[in-house]
Design a protein that fits this description.
alpha+beta, single chain, about 70 residues, two-stranded antiparallel sheet, about 40% strand, globular
């Protein structure tokens, strides 16, 4: 049996560039894992993704927040 999956979107935005990526991730995926899976680092090489604050609908969440 395969693991349950959920559909999510990961967004990153600067004044001059915005990217939204749709992903399907396993249930239990954390906020930080979702960012890593999104490969946003390739779209924003000027940012240190590992140290950025994370949020869901404008509410800060911890790296280990389960989606």
């Amino acid at each position: 049996m395969s693991a349950a999956m959920i559909a999510i979107e990961v967004a990153c935005a600067l004044p001059e560039q915005q990217v939204v990526k749709a992903l399907v991730v396993p249930v239990g995926c954390t906020a930080r894992e979702a960012v890593e899976r999104s490969e946003m680092a390739a779209a924003f090489p000027m940012l240190e993704m590992a140290s950025l604050a994370l949020g869901i609908y404008s509410q800060l969440v911890s790296d280990d927040y389960v989606l």
